[in-house]
Amino acid sequence: MSTLLTVRRWLALGSVLAGVRRGNLRPHARGVLDALGITLDANTDLLRVPAGTGTLIVANHVSWLDIVAILAVDPVGFLAKREVRSWPVIGSLAQACGTRFIARRELRELPAVVDGLADALRHGESVVVFPEGTTWCGGPGGTFRRAAFQAAIDAGAPVRPVTFAYSQGGQPSTVAAFVGDDALLPSLNRVARARDLRIELTAHPPLDPAGDRRELAARAQDAVRLTRIPAHA
């Protein structure tokens, strides 16, 4: 891709982020995708399930772009590691949507995090969790950790599985993958230079919070893995 077009994308991205504030983040998230030349295909425009509680939205995790894509569809909250707060692009969006930041390596915080998540769900807040705990660029992905599913069970909240797939020119792509020792700015630069990048977001039917958390996590994981290859491939 030409240097001029890449520069234009960076300038457009900066313009979008300058206007980010609390409220409806959908236009800002869509603006980020447009600025970077990314196409989003989503099979829904609402991830929340109409219910008396919020919805626990669980997804495979490929890239920081997963967060932008979800906000472009349905501006819900997130549960994310504390480092995300200081990230360029994502940090401002995450804070504006009321993200709960946690220290993932401090296990003593986990019970309080689960209790807080359950309370948010009871009060009608919908929250996105990436239960693999880290990003995966392909293959079957990681095992879904079970703690967040206990919050859905405690709150009696539905669980909405979501699958992300990335492609370029109709073929699976890893250009947006954010794994290993990757840093955000080099990743963002790769994305800004990419051609024909497409994100496919597939929301699966909601799951009732029945059974124990191990069984619920396994059901959600199976649903997410039904769609790992882009439909355009």
Give the secondary structure arrangement, pairings included.
Layout: H1 3-18, H2 26-35, E1 39-42, E2 56-59, H3 65-73, E3 77-81, H4 90-96, E4 100-102, H5 110-122, E5 127-129, H6 147-155, E6 159-168, E7 171-172, H7 184-193, E8 197-203, H8 213-225
Parallel strand pairs: 1-8, 2-5, 2-6, 3-4, 3-5
Antiparallel strand pairs: 6-7, 6-8
Helix pairs in contact: 1-2, 2-3, 5-6, 6-8
Structure characterization notes:
β6 and β7 (about 170) form a beta hairpin. Helices cover about 35% and strands about 15% of the residues. α2 packs across α3 (about 65-75). The model is unreliable at about 230-233 (pLDDT under 50). Strands 1, 2, 3, 4, 5, 6, 7 and 8 form an eight-stranded mixed β-sheet that branches. It has about 230 residues and is α/β, with parallel strands linked by helices. It comes from Amycolatopsis thermalba. InterPro entries: Plipid/glycerol_acylTrfase. GO terms for molecular function: acyltransferase activity.
Short description:
By secondary structure, the protein is of the alpha/beta class. It has 8 helices and 8 strands; from the N terminus they run H-H-E-E-H-E-H-E-H-E-H-E-E-H-E-H.
Using brief descriptors, characterize the structure shown.
single chain; 233 residues; alpha/beta; eight-stranded mixed sheet; 8 helices; 8 strands; globular
Total number of strands: 8
Along the chain, the helix and strand elements come as HHEEHEHEHEHEEHEH
Radius of gyration: 17 Å
Count of discrete alpha- or pi-helical segments spanning 4 or more residues: 8
Low-pLDDT runs of 5+ residues are 229-233
Mean pLDDT score: 83
